[in-house]
Amino acid sequence: MLNLTYEYKLIPTDAQRETIDQWLTICRKVYNFALRERKDWVNSRKCDVNSCSIRQEYTIPADAPRPTFARQCKTLGQAKQLIPELKLPHTHVLQQVLRQLEAAFVAMWDRGHGFPRFKQRMRSFVFPQLNLESVQRFEGADWVNLPKIGRVKIHLSRPIPEGFEVKQIRVVKRASGYYAMLTLQCDVEVPQALLSGHGIGIDLGLEHFLATSDGELIDRPRFFVDGQSKLKSLQRQLKRKKKRSRKYSQLQHQIAKYHEYISNSRKDFHFKTAHHLCDQGQSVFAEDLNLKAMSAGMLCKHTLDAGFGQFLSILSHVCFKRDRYFAKVNASGTSQTCPRCQTHTGRKELSERVHQCSECGYQTNRDVAAAQVVLQRGYAAVGHIAVNFGEGKLHE
Ligand SMILES: [Zn+2]
Q1: Residues 6+ apart with CB under 8 A from 182
Q2: 173: containing domain
Q3: SS3 state at 362
Q4: How many angstroms does the Cα of residue 136 sit away from the middle of ligand 1?
Q5: Distance from C-alpha of 344 to C-alpha of 338, rounded to nearest angstrom
Q6: What is the 62 CA–ligand 1 centroid distance (Å)?
Q7: Residues 159, 21: one domain?
Q8: pTM for the structure as a whole
Q9: How far is the CA of 131 from the centre of ligand 1 (A)?
Q10: 286 CA from centroid of ligand 1 (Å)
Q11: Model confidence pLDDT, tens digit, residues 7-34
Protein backbone atom coordinates (compact mmCIF):
# COMPACT_ATOMS: atom_id res chain seq x y z
CA MET A 1 0.00 0.00 0.00
CA LEU A 2 1.46 3.29 -1.02
CA ASN A 3 0.29 6.77 -0.07
CA LEU A 4 1.09 10.00 -1.83
CA THR A 5 -0.14 13.49 -1.11
CA TYR A 6 -0.67 15.87 -4.00
CA GLU A 7 -1.77 19.44 -3.59
CA TYR A 8 -3.92 21.38 -6.03
CA LYS A 9 -5.36 24.86 -6.13
CA LEU A 10 -9.12 25.13 -5.74
CA ILE A 11 -11.18 27.74 -7.54
CA PRO A 12 -14.34 27.95 -5.40
CA THR A 13 -17.28 30.21 -6.14
CA ASP A 14 -18.10 33.02 -3.71
CA ALA A 15 -20.78 30.89 -2.10
CA GLN A 16 -18.41 27.95 -1.74
CA ARG A 17 -15.78 30.22 -0.23
CA GLU A 18 -18.32 31.35 2.32
CA THR A 19 -19.24 27.74 3.15
CA ILE A 20 -15.61 26.71 3.58
CA ASP A 21 -14.93 29.70 5.84
CA GLN A 22 -18.00 28.92 7.88
CA TRP A 23 -16.99 25.28 8.30
CA LEU A 24 -13.50 26.35 9.38
CA THR A 25 -15.03 28.54 12.06
CA ILE A 26 -17.26 25.74 13.30
CA CYS A 27 -14.32 23.31 13.30
CA ARG A 28 -12.31 25.76 15.38
CA LYS A 29 -15.14 26.13 17.88
CA VAL A 30 -15.55 22.36 18.18
CA TYR A 31 -11.80 21.92 18.64
CA ASN A 32 -11.60 24.57 21.33
CA PHE A 33 -14.70 23.29 23.11
CA ALA A 34 -13.38 19.72 23.15
CA LEU A 35 -9.97 20.94 24.34
CA ARG A 36 -11.68 22.93 27.12
CA GLU A 37 -13.49 19.77 28.19
CA ARG A 38 -10.25 17.78 28.32
CA LYS A 39 -8.39 20.58 30.07
CA ASP A 40 -11.07 20.91 32.74
CA TRP A 41 -10.96 17.20 33.32
CA VAL A 42 -7.16 17.23 33.72
CA ASN A 43 -7.31 20.20 36.06
CA SER A 44 -10.01 18.61 38.20
CA ARG A 45 -7.70 15.64 38.75
CA LYS A 46 -4.57 17.64 39.43
CA CYS A 47 -5.06 18.84 43.01
CA ASP A 48 -4.97 16.68 46.08
CA VAL A 49 -7.92 16.48 48.43
CA ASN A 50 -6.70 19.11 50.91
CA SER A 51 -5.97 21.88 48.47
CA CYS A 52 -8.78 21.41 46.01
CA SER A 53 -10.18 24.75 44.95
CA ILE A 54 -13.94 25.24 44.91
CA ARG A 55 -13.93 26.02 41.22
CA GLN A 56 -12.35 22.73 40.34
CA GLU A 57 -14.51 20.79 42.73
CA TYR A 58 -17.78 21.71 41.19
CA THR A 59 -16.78 21.69 37.52
CA ILE A 60 -16.40 17.96 37.21
CA PRO A 61 -17.59 15.19 39.51
CA ALA A 62 -14.85 12.91 40.78
CA ASP A 63 -16.16 9.90 38.88
CA ALA A 64 -16.55 11.62 35.52
CA PRO A 65 -14.83 9.51 32.87
CA ARG A 66 -11.87 10.92 30.95
CA PRO A 67 -13.03 12.61 27.72
CA THR A 68 -11.67 10.29 25.06
CA PHE A 69 -12.07 10.50 21.30
CA ALA A 70 -15.00 8.09 21.35
CA ARG A 71 -16.77 9.87 24.22
CA GLN A 72 -16.28 13.26 22.61
CA CYS A 73 -17.74 11.97 19.34
CA LYS A 74 -20.80 10.89 21.27
CA THR A 75 -21.07 14.27 22.99
CA LEU A 76 -20.81 15.92 19.59
CA GLY A 77 -23.73 13.87 18.34
CA GLN A 78 -25.86 14.99 21.28
CA ALA A 79 -24.77 18.63 20.92
CA LYS A 80 -26.05 18.62 17.35
CA GLN A 81 -29.61 18.36 18.62
CA LEU A 82 -29.14 21.56 20.60
CA ILE A 83 -26.88 23.58 18.31
CA PRO A 84 -28.15 23.59 14.70
CA GLU A 85 -24.89 25.17 13.50
CA LEU A 86 -23.13 21.87 14.14
CA LYS A 87 -25.29 20.20 11.53
CA LEU A 88 -23.81 22.34 8.76
CA PRO A 89 -20.43 20.63 8.23
CA HIS A 90 -20.24 17.00 7.21
CA THR A 91 -20.26 14.66 10.24
CA HIS A 92 -16.93 13.06 9.35
CA VAL A 93 -15.30 16.45 9.06
CA LEU A 94 -16.20 17.34 12.65
CA GLN A 95 -15.17 13.91 13.92
CA GLN A 96 -11.79 14.44 12.28
CA VAL A 97 -11.42 17.62 14.33
CA LEU A 98 -11.81 15.52 17.47
CA ARG A 99 -9.34 13.00 16.09
CA GLN A 100 -6.88 15.80 15.46
CA LEU A 101 -7.22 16.84 19.10
CA GLU A 102 -6.69 13.24 20.17
CA ALA A 103 -3.52 13.16 18.04
CA ALA A 104 -2.26 16.32 19.75
CA PHE A 105 -2.68 14.61 23.12
CA VAL A 106 -0.98 11.43 21.92
CA ALA A 107 1.95 13.55 20.68
CA MET A 108 2.17 15.06 24.14
CA TRP A 109 2.06 11.70 25.94
CA ASP A 110 4.34 9.79 23.60
CA ARG A 111 6.67 12.35 22.15
CA GLY A 112 6.89 15.00 24.82
CA HIS A 113 5.17 17.72 22.80
CA GLY A 114 3.57 20.57 24.73
CA PHE A 115 0.03 20.65 26.09
CA PRO A 116 -2.33 21.33 23.15
CA ARG A 117 -3.34 24.95 22.82
CA PHE A 118 -6.55 26.67 21.87
CA LYS A 119 -6.71 27.56 18.21
CA GLN A 120 -7.06 31.16 17.11
CA ARG A 121 -7.81 29.97 13.64
CA MET A 122 -8.38 26.72 11.84
CA ARG A 123 -6.59 26.42 8.54
CA SER A 124 -7.96 23.19 7.19
CA PHE A 125 -10.46 20.38 7.50
CA VAL A 126 -10.52 16.81 6.21
CA PHE A 127 -12.94 14.54 4.44
CA PRO A 128 -11.59 11.20 5.63
CA GLN A 129 -13.65 8.90 3.43
CA LEU A 130 -14.67 9.56 -0.11
CA ASN A 131 -16.58 7.75 -2.73
CA LEU A 132 -14.79 6.75 -5.85
CA GLU A 133 -14.27 9.28 -8.58
CA SER A 134 -14.32 12.36 -6.45
CA VAL A 135 -12.24 14.08 -9.10
CA GLN A 136 -13.97 14.37 -12.47
CA ARG A 137 -13.48 16.13 -15.73
CA PHE A 138 -16.27 17.67 -17.72
CA GLU A 139 -17.23 20.86 -19.51
CA GLY A 140 -13.55 21.42 -20.18
CA ALA A 141 -12.61 21.73 -16.52
CA ASP A 142 -11.61 19.55 -13.59
CA TRP A 143 -13.85 19.29 -10.57
CA VAL A 144 -13.58 17.81 -7.13
CA ASN A 145 -16.77 16.58 -5.53
CA LEU A 146 -16.86 17.58 -1.86
CA PRO A 147 -19.70 16.18 0.27
CA LYS A 148 -22.24 18.88 1.20
CA ILE A 149 -20.21 21.58 -0.57
CA GLY A 150 -20.68 20.26 -4.06
CA ARG A 151 -18.49 20.42 -7.12
CA VAL A 152 -15.55 22.75 -6.75
CA LYS A 153 -13.34 23.68 -9.65
CA ILE A 154 -9.80 22.35 -9.20
CA HIS A 155 -6.64 23.20 -11.08
CA LEU A 156 -5.00 19.83 -11.78
CA SER A 157 -1.46 21.12 -12.21
CA ARG A 158 -0.25 17.52 -12.54
CA PRO A 159 -2.24 14.40 -13.32
CA ILE A 160 -3.25 11.93 -10.64
CA PRO A 161 -0.92 8.97 -11.25
CA GLU A 162 -2.24 5.82 -12.87
CA GLY A 163 -3.57 3.20 -10.46
CA PHE A 164 -4.11 5.61 -7.58
CA GLU A 165 -7.38 6.40 -5.84
CA VAL A 166 -8.27 9.51 -3.88
CA LYS A 167 -8.67 8.36 -0.28
CA GLN A 168 -8.86 11.59 1.62
CA ILE A 169 -9.15 15.30 0.86
CA ARG A 170 -7.94 18.09 3.07
CA VAL A 171 -9.27 21.55 2.24
CA VAL A 172 -6.71 24.19 3.20
CA LYS A 173 -7.12 27.95 3.39
CA ARG A 174 -3.99 29.97 2.86
CA ALA A 175 -3.22 33.63 2.31
CA SER A 176 -3.04 32.99 -1.43
CA GLY A 177 -6.31 31.10 -1.66
CA TYR A 178 -7.88 27.68 -1.19
CA TYR A 179 -6.18 24.35 -1.82
CA ALA A 180 -7.02 20.68 -1.79
CA MET A 181 -4.51 18.15 -0.50
CA LEU A 182 -5.38 14.81 -1.99
CA THR A 183 -4.16 11.67 -0.28
CA LEU A 184 -3.75 9.14 -3.06
CA GLN A 185 -3.51 5.46 -2.42
CA CYS A 186 -2.31 2.63 -4.58
CA ASP A 187 -3.50 -0.78 -3.46
CA VAL A 188 -0.90 -2.67 -5.42
CA GLU A 189 2.00 -3.80 -3.30
CA VAL A 190 5.04 -1.92 -4.52
CA PRO A 191 8.34 -3.45 -3.45
CA GLN A 192 10.88 -1.11 -1.97
CA ALA A 193 14.19 -0.74 -3.73
CA LEU A 194 16.79 -3.18 -2.47
CA LEU A 195 19.69 -2.13 -0.36
CA SER A 196 22.53 -1.76 -2.82
CA GLY A 197 25.37 0.36 -4.06
CA HIS A 198 26.88 3.25 -2.22
CA GLY A 199 25.19 4.03 1.10
CA ILE A 200 24.83 7.43 2.73
CA GLY A 201 24.05 8.20 6.34
CA ILE A 202 22.74 11.64 7.20
CA ASP A 203 22.68 13.64 10.40
CA LEU A 204 20.30 16.57 10.73
CA GLY A 205 21.69 19.46 12.70
CA LEU A 206 21.44 23.05 13.71
CA GLU A 207 24.73 24.48 12.58
CA HIS A 208 24.46 22.74 9.23
CA PHE A 209 21.16 21.54 7.89
CA LEU A 210 22.64 18.12 7.36
CA ALA A 211 25.92 16.25 7.25
CA THR A 212 26.52 13.11 5.22
CA SER A 213 28.75 10.15 6.00
CA ASP A 214 30.77 11.13 2.94
CA GLY A 215 31.78 14.31 4.71
CA GLU A 216 29.50 16.71 2.86
CA LEU A 217 27.92 19.52 4.85
CA ILE A 218 24.76 21.16 3.51
CA ASP A 219 23.80 24.50 4.97
CA ARG A 220 20.38 26.04 5.27
CA PRO A 221 19.93 28.63 2.56
CA ARG A 222 20.84 32.11 3.75
CA PHE A 223 17.24 32.90 2.91
CA PHE A 224 15.81 31.34 6.07
CA VAL A 225 17.80 33.56 8.39
CA ASP A 226 16.93 36.68 6.38
CA GLY A 227 13.32 35.58 6.03
CA GLN A 228 12.93 35.26 9.77
CA SER A 229 14.20 38.76 10.44
CA LYS A 230 11.95 40.22 7.76
CA LEU A 231 9.03 38.42 9.37
CA LYS A 232 9.94 39.83 12.75
CA SER A 233 10.10 43.35 11.40
CA LEU A 234 6.67 42.96 9.77
CA GLN A 235 5.25 41.71 13.05
CA ARG A 236 6.71 44.71 14.87
CA GLN A 237 5.03 47.00 12.36
CA LEU A 238 1.76 45.20 12.93
CA LYS A 239 1.93 45.91 16.65
CA ARG A 240 2.02 49.64 15.97
CA LYS A 241 -1.08 49.60 13.78
CA LYS A 242 -4.53 50.05 15.15
CA LYS A 243 -6.41 46.77 15.40
CA ARG A 244 -9.15 46.20 12.83
CA SER A 245 -7.99 49.17 10.75
CA ARG A 246 -7.53 48.80 7.01
CA LYS A 247 -3.74 49.08 7.32
CA TYR A 248 -3.79 46.40 10.02
CA SER A 249 -5.59 43.85 7.92
CA GLN A 250 -3.45 44.69 4.89
CA LEU A 251 -0.30 44.05 6.88
CA GLN A 252 -1.78 40.92 8.37
CA HIS A 253 -2.43 39.57 4.91
CA GLN A 254 1.08 40.50 3.85
CA ILE A 255 2.51 38.55 6.80
CA ALA A 256 0.36 35.53 6.02
CA LYS A 257 1.53 35.59 2.41
CA TYR A 258 5.14 35.87 3.51
CA HIS A 259 4.72 32.88 5.82
CA GLU A 260 3.40 30.92 2.90
CA TYR A 261 6.31 32.03 0.74
CA ILE A 262 8.82 30.88 3.37
CA SER A 263 7.17 27.51 3.77
CA ASN A 264 7.09 27.01 -0.01
CA SER A 265 10.78 27.87 -0.26
CA ARG A 266 11.56 25.49 2.57
CA LYS A 267 9.74 22.70 0.80
CA ASP A 268 11.60 23.48 -2.40
CA PHE A 269 14.92 23.34 -0.55
CA HIS A 270 13.91 20.00 1.02
CA PHE A 271 13.09 18.52 -2.39
CA LYS A 272 16.34 19.76 -3.93
CA THR A 273 18.37 18.39 -1.03
CA ALA A 274 16.60 15.02 -1.23
CA HIS A 275 17.35 14.78 -4.96
CA HIS A 276 20.92 15.78 -4.33
CA LEU A 277 21.30 12.90 -1.84
CA CYS A 278 19.78 10.49 -4.33
CA ASP A 279 22.40 11.65 -6.85
CA GLN A 280 25.14 10.65 -4.39
CA GLY A 281 24.13 7.12 -3.42
CA GLN A 282 21.78 4.19 -3.87
CA SER A 283 20.87 3.73 -0.21
CA VAL A 284 20.02 6.48 2.26
CA PHE A 285 19.80 6.17 6.03
CA ALA A 286 18.41 8.86 8.28
CA GLU A 287 17.72 9.20 11.95
CA ASP A 288 14.21 8.44 13.11
CA LEU A 289 12.75 11.51 14.77
CA ASN A 290 9.60 9.75 15.87
CA LEU A 291 11.12 7.44 18.44
CA LYS A 292 9.71 7.67 21.90
CA ALA A 293 13.06 7.50 23.61
CA MET A 294 14.59 10.61 22.19
CA SER A 295 17.80 11.81 23.70
CA ALA A 296 17.92 15.32 25.08
CA GLY A 297 19.93 16.46 22.09
CA MET A 298 17.39 15.13 19.63
CA LEU A 299 14.51 16.67 21.49
CA CYS A 300 16.22 20.01 21.23
CA LYS A 301 16.74 19.56 17.50
CA HIS A 302 13.16 18.56 17.01
CA THR A 303 11.68 21.57 18.71
CA LEU A 304 14.05 24.01 17.07
CA ASP A 305 13.20 23.12 13.54
CA ALA A 306 9.92 21.44 12.80
CA GLY A 307 11.12 21.23 9.21
CA PHE A 308 13.08 18.04 9.95
CA GLY A 309 9.94 15.93 9.96
CA GLN A 310 8.86 17.35 6.61
CA PHE A 311 12.31 16.82 5.14
CA LEU A 312 12.38 13.17 6.15
CA SER A 313 9.00 12.45 4.62
CA ILE A 314 10.02 14.24 1.41
CA LEU A 315 13.29 12.32 1.41
CA SER A 316 11.50 8.99 1.76
CA HIS A 317 9.14 9.98 -1.06
CA VAL A 318 11.97 11.06 -3.37
CA CYS A 319 13.97 7.91 -2.57
CA PHE A 320 10.94 5.84 -3.50
CA LYS A 321 10.42 7.65 -6.78
CA ARG A 322 14.06 7.37 -7.70
CA ASP A 323 14.33 3.73 -6.71
CA ARG A 324 16.68 4.29 -3.80
CA TYR A 325 16.69 2.26 -0.61
CA PHE A 326 15.62 4.37 2.35
CA ALA A 327 15.50 3.47 6.04
CA LYS A 328 15.38 5.22 9.36
CA VAL A 329 17.55 4.21 12.28
CA ASN A 330 17.52 4.89 15.98
CA ALA A 331 19.75 7.91 16.35
CA SER A 332 20.07 8.20 20.10
CA GLY A 333 23.66 8.79 21.06
CA THR A 334 25.01 8.89 17.52
CA SER A 335 27.23 11.79 18.47
CA GLN A 336 28.70 9.81 21.37
CA THR A 337 30.19 6.95 19.42
CA CYS A 338 33.36 6.83 17.39
CA PRO A 339 32.55 5.60 13.85
CA ARG A 340 36.02 4.13 13.47
CA CYS A 341 36.55 2.10 16.63
CA GLN A 342 33.00 2.19 18.15
CA THR A 343 34.33 3.58 21.44
CA HIS A 344 31.78 5.47 23.49
CA THR A 345 33.25 8.94 23.58
CA GLY A 346 30.72 10.55 25.88
CA ARG A 347 28.41 13.46 25.35
CA LYS A 348 29.81 16.36 23.38
CA GLU A 349 29.08 19.94 24.24
CA LEU A 350 27.25 21.82 21.48
CA SER A 351 30.31 24.02 21.06
CA GLU A 352 32.54 21.01 20.33
CA ARG A 353 32.50 20.96 16.56
CA VAL A 354 35.06 18.22 16.05
CA HIS A 355 34.94 14.52 16.83
CA GLN A 356 38.32 13.48 18.12
CA CYS A 357 38.64 9.95 19.43
CA SER A 358 41.07 9.47 22.28
CA GLU A 359 41.22 5.74 21.56
CA CYS A 360 42.02 5.56 17.87
CA GLY A 361 42.79 9.16 17.05
CA TYR A 362 40.05 9.44 14.41
CA GLN A 363 39.24 13.04 13.77
CA THR A 364 36.44 14.52 11.69
CA ASN A 365 33.59 16.99 11.83
CA ARG A 366 31.25 16.05 14.65
CA ASP A 367 28.11 15.92 12.47
CA VAL A 368 29.91 13.88 9.82
CA ALA A 369 30.92 11.40 12.54
CA ALA A 370 27.29 11.17 13.65
CA ALA A 371 26.17 10.59 10.04
CA GLN A 372 28.74 7.81 9.73
CA VAL A 373 27.34 6.13 12.84
CA VAL A 374 23.83 6.45 11.33
CA LEU A 375 25.07 4.66 8.21
CA GLN A 376 26.67 1.88 10.28
CA ARG A 377 23.50 1.38 12.28
CA GLY A 378 21.44 1.28 9.11
CA TYR A 379 23.68 -1.40 7.65
CA ALA A 380 23.75 -3.35 10.91
CA ALA A 381 19.94 -3.39 11.04
CA VAL A 382 19.78 -5.32 7.77
CA GLY A 383 22.73 -7.56 8.55
CA HIS A 384 24.99 -5.84 6.06
CA ILE A 385 28.72 -5.80 6.57
CA ALA A 386 29.75 -2.75 8.50
CA VAL A 387 31.76 0.02 6.94
CA ASN A 388 34.83 1.46 8.56
CA PHE A 389 35.72 5.09 8.51
CA GLY A 390 39.01 6.86 8.85
CA GLU A 391 42.40 6.17 7.35
CA GLY A 392 44.64 3.28 8.22
CA LYS A 393 44.03 0.01 9.99
CA LEU A 394 41.74 -0.33 12.93
CA HIS A 395 43.74 -2.43 15.37
CA GLU A 396 47.42 -2.76 14.95
ZN1 LIG B 1 37.86 5.85 17.83
Answers
A1: 5, 6, 7, 8, 135, 160, 166, 168, 169
A2: 127-186
A3: coil
A4: 61
A5: 6
A6: 58
A7: no
A8: 0.70
A9: 58
A10: 22
A11: 999 999 999 999 999 999 999 999 999 9
**Cα 274 to middle of ligand 1, angstroms:** 30
394 Cα to the center of ligand 1, angstroms: 9
What does DSSP say about strands 217-218 and 283-287: parallel, antiparallel, or unpaired? unpaired
Count the Cβ atoms, other than its own, within 10 Å of residue 303: 11
Count of domains observed in the chain: 3
Q: In what order do the strands lie in the sheet with 165-174?
A: 124-127, 165-174, 177-186, 2-11, 150-155, 141-146, 135-138
Q: How far is CA 181 from CA 25, 285, 318, in A?
A: 19, 28, 18
Near ion ligand 1, which residues have CB within 5 Å?
Answer: 338, 340-341, 343, 357, 359-360, 362
Residues in the chain: 396
CA 360 to centroid of ligand 1, rounded, Å: 4
Q: Does a structural domain hold residue 356?
A: yes
**Are 251 and 154 contained in the same domain?**
no
Q: Distance, CA 122 to ligand 1 centroid (Å)?
A: 51
Give the residue from 265, 284, 263 showing the smallest Cα distance to 210. Answer: 284
Helix (H, G, I), strand (E, B) or coil at 217: strand
- Kindly give the distance from the C-alpha atom of residue 134 to the centroid of ligand 1, in angstroms, as a whole number: 58
- 379 CA distance to ligand 1 middle (Å): 19
Q: For 66-83, what is each residue's pLDDT tens digit?
A: 889 999 999 999 999 999
Tell me the pLDDT tens digit for each residue of 342-363: 888 887 777 788 998 888 889 9
Do residues 155 and 11 touch, judged by C-beta distance below 8 A?
A: yes
Beta bridge partners of 184: 4, 166
Query: Is residue 2 one of the residues assigned to a domain?
Result: no
Cα-to-centroid distance, 316 and ligand 1 (Å): 31
